[in-house]
Specification:
One of its GO terms (molecular function) is hydrolase activity. With about 325 residues, this protein is α/β, with parallel strands linked by helices. Helices cover about 30% and strands about 15% of the residues. It has eleven helices and eight strands.
């Protein structure tokens, strides 16, 4: 961890924070979700670099140590695509493996569709192929207290989170979303009320980890992260008949709550997802939860390095 180098690159007039470990022509670019950050990939960066890859993770605009966009309420998933390509261009990377987790999977897929010549392969954790749009998740089939629906309401999550310090918010989100159930609040609750403050942190997420996350989100706040992904999830990205022909791998934990989304498990297990990614390998891990790369780093690292080595030229 101490050997990870940190720098800033300018993309679309914004300074983005980049963490990097390892050297060489074979590049792996890690894309975080929420409430994650570059640090979410610490275990995978070390493993990839040790295997001979140049491992890079960065904070998307408005997250962590990266600069806020001038109008966060106008940010969209298109901006994350610009971030990925901009970081690659700034670091003189012509082609890379993209590894995305949670909402970081969306720009991984989007870049692979729009810029296939820049992508060696796509690995995602917890999210099968999908692009932003009205049909990405059938929200009408979910209860009105579902966390995404709540956080899509302007001001609601801000008020909910604002009752606590940043450390408590991050702690609560990690504790809630490592469960296998969908997080749904009743009419007299907010999402933060679902957390049990007395519950201990899981062994794979230490107080030191929580401190790192808290410090990064104290810097950025939640203004942009609530906009992207949650409040732009239903905006169509304009891509028709998308297909990714690059090699792909989906790692799903059997205890990931995302499998409880309407139609999600069938979409994956029936291999309908391969209509969009014909060269996709699907792996289920019996004990994995939504934070599988932090929960089970050795298992994820082994799967990742095997995939990278298989498809490196």
């Amino acid at each position: 961890m101490e050997q990870i180098q940190h720098k800033y690159v300018e993309v679309s007039g914004l300074k983005l924070h980049v963490a990097e470990l390892g050297t060489g022509p074979k590049v792996v670019l890690f894309l975080h979700g929420f409430p994650e950050i570059w640090y979410s990939w610490r275990h995978q960066m070390v493993a990839a670099a040790a295997a001979g890859y140049r491992a890079i993770a960065f904070d998307f605009r408005g997250y962590g140590l990266s600069q806020q966009p001038p109008e966060p309420e106008k940010a969209s998933f298109d901006d994350l695509v610009l971030d990925v390509i901009g970081v690659m261009d700034n670091l003189s990377i012509s082609k890379a493996f993209l590894v995305g987790k949670d909402s970081g999977a969306f720009p991984a897929f989007h870049v692979a569709v729009l810029h296939p010549e820049r992508v060696s392969g796509v690995v995602t954790l917890g999210i099968p192929f999908m692009l932003p749009g009205v049909s990405v998740i059938p929200m009408h089939l979910l209860p009105k207290g579902f966390y995404i629906l709540r956080w899509q309401e302007p001001g609601r999550a801000e008020a909910d989170f604002g009752r606590f310090d940043v450390k408590t918010v991050i702690r609560n989100i990690y504790m809630l979303f490592c469960r296998s159930e969908l997080q749904v609040a009743s009419d007299d609750q907010e999402i933060m009320d679902l957390a049990d403050p007395s519950a201990p942190l899981p062994p794979w997420f230490t107080e030191e980890d929580l401190k790192v996350y808290s410090t990064l989100y104290e810097n950025s706040g939640f203004r942009t992260p609530l906009q992207v992904p949650y409040r732009t999830l239903g905006i169509d990205c304009g891509v028709k008949d998308p297909k990714i022909t690059a090699p792909g791998m989906l790692i799903m934990g059997e205890k990931d709550y995302v499998l409880k989304f309407p139609g999600m498990e069938e979409y994956i297990r029936s291999e309908k997802v391969k209509e969009f990614m014909p060269n996709l390998e699907i792996i289920f891990h019996e004990e994995g939860n939504h934070f599988i790369q932090e929960q089970l780093p050795e298992e994820v690292n082994e799967l990742l390095i095997t995939f990278l080595n298989k498809h490196s030229t």
